[in-house]
Amino acid sequence: MDHGLDYYAPQTCLNDQGRRIIVAWQQMWGRTNVTAELQHG
Questions:
Q1: pLDDT grade, residue 11 (50/70/90)?
Q2: Is the pTM of this model over 0.70?
Q3: How far apart are CA 32 and CA 12, in angstroms?
Q4: Which runs of consecutive H residues, i.e. helices, occur in the chain?
Protein backbone atom coordinates (compact mmCIF):
# COMPACT_ATOMS: atom_id res chain seq x y z
CA MET A 1 0.00 0.00 0.00
CA ASP A 2 2.89 2.40 0.70
CA HIS A 3 3.80 3.50 -2.84
CA GLY A 4 5.79 6.64 -2.21
CA LEU A 5 8.01 8.75 -0.08
CA ASP A 6 6.71 10.22 3.14
CA TYR A 7 3.49 8.19 3.14
CA TYR A 8 1.71 9.85 6.04
CA ALA A 9 -1.63 9.95 7.85
CA PRO A 10 -3.70 7.48 5.82
CA GLN A 11 -7.43 7.66 6.50
CA THR A 12 -10.14 5.39 5.18
CA CYS A 13 -13.88 5.63 4.64
CA LEU A 14 -16.61 3.63 2.94
CA ASN A 15 -18.35 5.05 -0.10
CA ASP A 16 -22.04 4.61 -0.78
CA GLN A 17 -21.30 1.35 -2.65
CA GLY A 18 -19.47 -0.18 0.32
CA ARG A 19 -16.00 0.23 -1.19
CA ARG A 20 -13.16 1.27 1.12
CA ILE A 21 -11.36 4.45 0.03
CA ILE A 22 -7.97 5.50 1.43
CA VAL A 23 -6.44 8.98 1.28
CA ALA A 24 -2.95 9.89 2.50
CA TRP A 25 -0.14 12.40 2.05
CA GLN A 26 2.74 11.36 -0.22
CA GLN A 27 5.97 13.29 -0.79
CA MET A 28 6.73 16.57 0.93
CA TRP A 29 6.65 19.47 -1.54
CA GLY A 30 9.57 21.35 0.00
CA ARG A 31 11.95 18.41 -0.12
CA THR A 32 14.02 17.11 -3.01
CA ASN A 33 13.38 13.61 -4.26
CA VAL A 34 15.71 10.93 -2.89
CA THR A 35 16.54 9.89 -6.46
CA ALA A 36 17.89 13.38 -7.17
CA GLU A 37 19.83 13.47 -3.88
CA LEU A 38 21.52 10.14 -4.67
CA GLN A 39 22.08 11.13 -8.33
CA HIS A 40 20.27 8.09 -9.72
CA GLY A 41 19.03 9.62 -12.93
A1: very high
A2: no
A3: 28
A4: 34-37
